Inverse folding.
């Protein structure tokens, strides 16, 4: 178990139906970690239930999305001097039993991504969204020079260098907390590893975007990354004599 002072950050938008259970499971599996819930403009009892369950709560006045909520969490982690931070979804998709694996991997990496795509996984993504994820995985893996099989996984940890970087530079757009942050980490020379985890379908609430919208976004993101890496590999022509 890592000796780094650890913060578990839970971005939450109207997750009253699951937040208390998620906090209880985190406390069960990582009693040494502090828990921060960022209530992202919730209009239900998310913030109150999180406080009652024992978490520190930051309440944003309006919904800014997961990227904006996580930027708040990284600023908090840096200000309070945490050496490790792990993101856990508030909807029950992430299994806190995997926290040790995700956090302890920081002994060899700056960012550890929990991947749901491994031989023992029962998680399935199909159709256009899966095709876009495969393309994006290949693009980011090539940039990283190491496998990133699940680039949209939000179950991930950050060590000291990543916390310092993301407290300053963290994308707030849709999927910025996953795809965008990995791209930023790679460009800044951070070491990214992945580890197998278990993921479930959400316990309560609803996703912010539908599957078709997500697939279109992922495809566009993959093409943008491919274009960026292609331009970076081009050798400037010598000046004409």
């Amino acid at each position: 178990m890592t000796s780094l002072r650890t913060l578990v950050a839970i971005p939450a938008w109207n997750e009253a139906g699951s937040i208390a259970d998620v906090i209880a499971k985190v406390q069960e599996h990582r009693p040494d970690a502090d828990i921060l819930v960022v209530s992202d403009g919730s209009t239900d009892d998310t913030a109150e239930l999180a406080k009652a369950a024992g978490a520190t709560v930051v309440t944003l006045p309006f919904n800014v999305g997961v990227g904006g909520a996580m930027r708040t969490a990284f600023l908090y982690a840096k200000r309070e001097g945490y050496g490790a931070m792990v993101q856990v979804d508030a909807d029950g998709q992430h299994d806190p039993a995997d926290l040790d694996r995700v956090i302890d991997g920081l002994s060899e990496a700056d960012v550890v991504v929990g991947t749901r795509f491994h031989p023992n996984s029962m998680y399935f993504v199909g159709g256009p969204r899966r095709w876009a994820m495969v393309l994006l995985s290949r693009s980011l893996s090539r940039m990283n020079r190491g496998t990133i099989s699940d680039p949209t996984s939000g179950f991930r940890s950050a060590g000291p260098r990543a916390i310092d970087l993301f407290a300053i530079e963290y994308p707030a757009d849709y999927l910025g907390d996953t795809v965008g942050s990995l791209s930023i980490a790679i460009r800044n020379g951070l070491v990214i590893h992945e580890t197998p985890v278990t993921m479930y379908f959400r316990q309560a609430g609803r996703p912010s975007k539908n599957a078709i919208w997500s697939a279109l976004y992922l495809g566009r993101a993959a093409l943008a990354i491919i274009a960026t890496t292609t331009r970076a590999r081009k050798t400037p022509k010598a000046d004409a004599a």
